[in-house]
Fold each of these.
Amino acid sequence: MVMTTNTNTAATTGTTTTGATTTGAVTPAGTGGDAGGGTGRIDFAKAAPKVFRALVGFDAAAREGLDPALVELIQIRASHLNHCAYCLHMHTNDARKAGESDDRLHMVAVWREARHFFTPKEQAALALTEAVTRVADAGVPDDVYAEAAAHFDDAELGHVLALILTINTWNRVALSTAKVAGTDERR
């Protein structure tokens, strides 16, 4: 998940901004549900700015060198599993803006039944995303890890794992601070 805030607490991450559109890794936002939602929850970026900036940096570093389409697929799948509507809305929109087809986006949640929509590399990343996201259920099975390692070199695999970790963290921040789907604060 990539969120931004309208305050000056967010760190920049090499984002390119042109007019009203933003490309690249954008700065995640304060994730308090009270920013327009009235939930009484904290604004994470304001409450813990050093932690927030560290997470922004981790997120930006994780996605370096990865295919942007793959980044969005991973973030979408983890957000499905974590029931994070805020991040799911954000990343499906980002994927569309990056040229992803609605057909593929509709199939992410059921990718095992619709494998022909995804490359073997994407399938390996989606399986790893599921295993790491659900790590408490069964750990990360050796066969899932081995399949991912067969499609990614060590550096890429490290970045894929880091991206899975960051989206799971962003999902938890958004859920615990009651972020509302459709209120993408990056605009």
Amino acid sequence: MKADLMEAQQRVTDGTSAAVRTRSGACEIDVTLTAAAVSGVRDLVSACLRLWGLTELDWRVTLTASELLTNAFQHARKEDESSVPVKVVLTRTPDGIFLCVSDPHPWLPAPVSAGDNDEGGRGLMLIKTLSNRYGCSSTAHGKDVWVTILHSA
């Protein structure tokens, strides 16, 4: 193990813990995500931002992380299961943050038109609004959905 790498199990909710690996400017979180664990993972992301002195990005990054995690839970989870394995990668860049959420579902997210009374369907619009860039790509194990969030100009 490298001297700058720190690994820990972090409890995110009752019965759920995450494997967290951090090193200077990078954090990886592996978790079996449940609905209740989304807020705990969001709190871990926020803790990394505070550690890096990037509190001005906190609300945008944590709201985006919540949306990406909720989407992974809703759409990547098998219908008869109560959890889904996800990986969150948070990387400090010279001009902001790179955030990626990986899940095992191969289908890429697509925008939908949400009506005024629809409860869902606005996630990608929210992500587009909060981030400077976003995208998704297929992987051998599912997909990655990523964003970059930059410091304000």
Amino acid sequence: MLKGPYRFSVAENQFYLLDDDDLDYVKNRTIAEAGNNGLVAGGQNHAVAVTGISAGTAMISFDLSPSPLEADDSQQWEEAAEFDYVSSTGVAHLAVGMGPDEEADDMEAYEINLAFNGPGGYRMRLHARGRELYPDGVQDKDDPIAEHYLLQIWPTGGGAVPAAP
């Protein structure tokens, strides 16, 4: 089920998927892992995506499916990367370091439960375009939004949470 697109805030060249708002838990933990593919990395109850802009507004859509999805070819995405996400709580939301801008953002983007199948494993694929248009800059409110993302999500089996290593 496709949801969006939604406006959301970017801060510090990143945005997150979290089971709660504990940003201290993920900052500097997964950002290095996202450097492996330059776009995104995930883990248990957290994921981080690296943006082009350092601050401002971007657009995101979510494609939630009960079964694996093919990469989206309906738009000209410049990058795509897959990663695993494990939810121990069955709840995951979009989150940003500075918090959403309630005047500019579509607050529904932050309310959608991305761990829609309950606790367990998920495969996610993040598509991106426009990250090179304002590298490390600020997306001005009056300019057309440059960065667009599509996050595809599907469960990888059962509701069991893998044991911690």
